[in-house]
Amino acid sequence: MHTNNHYPQDQDFREALGGRYRTATIWQGLFLSALLIAIISLTALIYNVVDGAFGYVAFDYKKDPAEFTSTPLTELTQDELITILKDNLSSGAYKKLENEKPMQKRSQAELYTLFLERLVQLDTKETWSMTNSLMNSEKIKAEVAEKYPTANLEFRSWLTPQFLVTPMSSKAEFAGVRTAVLGSLWLVGIAILFSLPIGTGAAIYLQEYAPKNWFTGIIQTNINNLAGVPSIVYGMLGLAVFVRVMEPFTSGSMFGVTDSNGRTVLSAGLTMGILVLPLIIINAQEAIKAVPDSLRQAAYGVGATRWQAVWYHVLPNALPGILTGSILALSRALGETAPLIVVGASTFISLDPQGPFSKFTALPIQIYQWTTRAQSEFHAIAASAIVVLLVLLLTLNATAVLLRNRFQRRW
Amino acid sequence: MENKYAIESNNLSIHYGSYTAVKDVSVKIQPQKITAIIGPSGCGKSTLLRALNRMNDFVPGCHVTGELLLQGQNLYGNQIDPVEVRRKIGMVFQKPNPFPKSIYENIAWGARINGFKGKMDELVEQSLRSAALWDEVKDKLQESAYALSGGQQQRLCIARTIAIQPEIILMDEPASALDPISTLRIEELMQELKKNYTIIIVTHNMQQAARASDFTAMMMIDDNRAGGVIEFDETKKIFTRPSDKRTEDYVTGRFG
Which residues, numbered 35 to 94 in chain B, qualify as contacts with chain A under a Cβ-Cβ cut-off of 8 Å? Predict the structure, then answer.
């Protein structure tokens, strides 16, 4: 037994130990509640979005369908619809539609949409959210019967296959996200094609070649800071540089494209590319840093040049990490809205982007635009578009993760 | 002119910025012998070894003064390319560091980047045989090098070094991460290899130096924390009749 023992003994020790465990339990509880709060927030987000995308809709026809056909609406075939459209539309309007896409090539659903839009002129009176529709079904039915005696009430999903393949329309019932989805894909594609090689190259240079001195220190600090610059600032940069200064290139006039200005998907893609560049550089640097030095030394030890060590050993081992960075970049580029507004995304466009020099719109722009409308049916399609955006995001990320796992094959 | 020595240093000093890590080393290494570098931790053994094939070039702020002669040519001369130096003077590291590739590729890669034009399969087999590894791996050449045991990995690293046919092989505590049996196999392998190669080995293990080496360089740190070779002689003499008191203290275990 030590004469001068400063530690608590037996009973004292056990009591103190009990106190230590209590503290640990409190902290564990706090961490758990943090996790629960996160889960609840995410669930609320998803619920909120889905809630808007389904629900009752009260609608009326401005003209009675019976004027056009005696067949029940749900049983109309493709040929019947073509005949009805041909008979009832003015020949000019019909020819215009035929020019856009031959009638025979349109699906039954597309033709039916045309029928509703052009002939019977579907008119949405009011919409209800999913929860409201399910909880107060009787009340809503009574309300509709009273307010709109001629209207039909239907529980519908605003998110339909038709919604995905239909371009923009001024009427919510006939609008779709096709143009916006394609625009977003073009945008993200251009951004990644631009920023991934440049970002990786910059990271390799900084990590493997650049001397460590005050100058590279400043560059490093600035890259880290750039990652936190508000996106609208990148929008201003994109407007000044890509839309204005580089207009001959970004509008395609250099390449003989005539009917265009600098507000193209190329300008926006490059702006997004610049925006995610710091993100990609930082992630690639971390990935390169994580490659063990022993591997470089092994390569140098058998007479490799710096380039050979980097190309054959450092880069393949850093690739999964670099791809992780590109996943983050992709998500960011897909969701950014502010720079697109500045660079000049179109808010109403129904033509698919044909190439890098096309005018474009993107999903976040489309969603933003729809949520600012007063009519509730636009809010419903905005919710559906958000679902589309989230699914698109998850799909792109999953692709990148799969790619990464392929490269991650360990020896 | 036939050189008597495999490699020779004259007042070789290694500096990190303004700090001198190794000072005034002048040794003459005999060809086809094993030379051990021993000394307490931090005396610059590994630094000196890495200076011999210009591995220190990658350390920021490191520069070398003095002369290092390989066949009369100063390896730190202006016209010398460090890549060429490393091709002639191979290196085996403390921790086995095979490439994350197949066993075959581990050996073939170094040969390929150095422009080897012969039959690769033969080179791989020959190198693995020289490293006493062939029988253990001949049926799994396409498997991962990481699936091998630590000792096998280290012999693979030796095979990889032999494959580029260097003149000198540097070994930086090659057995320190291995069990006694694997250590013994590496030592036996060194005896085999010295028929064709000059070997310089850094070791912490006094018995290993006594058992395996022909010559020993004793390094010690001075008052300015700069390491230096205080005695260089035949191993037998270093371990039985050292001329420096500090060497005697160290090898008898009274110090260090």
Answer: 53, 55, 58, 60, 83-84, 86-87, 90-93
